Amino acid sequence: MKWTKYATESIVIAGGQGGGSSLTQLYHPGILFVDNLRTVYVAGSKNQRVMRWPQGATQGSVIVGGNGEGAEADQFSTPIGVSFDQYGNLYVADEWNHRVQRFSLE
């Protein structure tokens, strides 16, 4: 949900379609990051993925994970943090795999 200054109502910017794994849904969203283009990145701890929601989008896209829970390079076990470096690399803290992974999103 987004609240603008002086707003009396909030705006849904990601999810809002109940919990689930479709591209219009989030399932226990935990951590988010908003970049300078107002793109929202959301880590979901139940569906083990990080999604990208560009400003004004009606659905997101899975950018990493989403392949079930596990320890492979394309899997997570409770992603709990997301961040970017100056080169645009995405870092994801993966709680139960006890690791931080770096992804190039070129």
Automatic annotation (TrEMBL):
Protein keywords: Repeat
Repeat found in the keyword field: yes
Entry superkingdom: Eukaryota
NHL repeats: 70-106
InterPro entries: 6-blade_b-propeller_TolB-like (IPR011042), NHL_repeat (IPR001258)
Classification via Pfam families: NHL
Official protein name in the record: NHL repeat-containing protein
Organism classification: Eukaryota, Metazoa, Spiralia, Gnathifera, Rotifera
